[in-house]
Amino acid sequence: MIRLSVPGRAPSASNRHAGTAGVAAGRCACRVVVSGVALLIAATAGPALAQSTDRVVATDGTFTGKITAVTPNEVQIEDRAGEIRRVAVDRIRDVQFAGEPQSLRSARGMLSRGRAAEALEEIAKVEAAELDGAEPTVLADMDYVKAVAAGRVALVTGADPRDAGRLVNDFLQKHPESHHLYDVQELLGDLLARAGRADNALAAYSQMAKGPPAFKVRAAAAKARMLLDQQKHREALAEFDAALAVDAGDEASGAQKRAAALGRARSLIGLGRHDDAIGVVTTVIDQSDPEEGDALAAAYDTLGVAYRSAGRDQDALIAFLTVDLVYNGSPEAHAEALWNLVELWERARNPERAREARATLDASYPGSRWAKQAAGKSS
Length: 379
Prior knowledge:
Elements: H1 16-45, E1 54-58, E2 61-70, E3 74-78, E4 84-88, E5 92-96, H2 102-112, H3 116-123, H4 136-157, H5 161-174, H6 181-194, H7 198-208, H8 213-229, H9 233-244, H10 251-270, H11 274-287, H12 293-309, H13 313-325, H14 331-347, H15 351-364, H16 369-378
Antiparallel strand pairs: 1-2, 1-5, 2-3, 3-4
């Protein structure tokens, strides 16, 4: 019988597997209730097109009024009293425009939740008549969703990045003052890196360093990630250290530094320093807010990889199960966890659980690189 134990925030009862499943069931029940309430609100609130004001949703509140200026570094919004608030891009979660098509808003939300393929389908529902007389900011966001969704789909599926790269580059040329600029520069760098154009990728990443401190951290981490993908672990480790050394103590930078720390752990794994990597990830888990689902999913995936590399399959199983049962809202992280679970359950001589994980992977993320890797191994 396999005994499972979870470090950090995961359950620690004697029957740890059941404990993890119980936590997951509780969270799933909460999600069902919340989803039901959301549907009820949506049914009674009327269409989103009725929104008569612009809205900036930030980490420290929601501001309504009229957007008066948009730049790569901030969005300015004037409230009813005539006061202008300047919201830095590293604090922005979403910008909603009065009168924008509902499908545009929905697609943008899908993008933020990692559902790029669904965002592409949703943005295609916007009809030309809905854009008659639309503000330039609305048209720019249409271009943003189309380009970014295409780019992220290419990265996730392993498709040729060149077509998506052209869309992304066109967006940057047409909308140099967009508040999405730094995010799109990072995506362009990722696509260039995937295409083998390392120098161009570095130039794209460098543009992010012109932004607020959190983007300086992201710029250094993006360079490190490219090196990590090239299996240049020592060079990647140095770049991740540079990201962590950026002089910034704000909340947004802290989140980016935790992400960089996970990249650093992957570099340590590549260098065979498994205990060091496990220590880094455990610290990240301890420092993360329980509501940071995407961050914790990435952390437990990294922990699972570290345990697998160290030959600790039982510990790896519980790390990946934590993603599958608790932090499964991040498509990329969940797909990676499922792929690992397929292999680990097979090695544990539990073919039924392996088939279940494989079925979930194929059904939920059929176009992902993880599903393709699983298909390649079984063919």
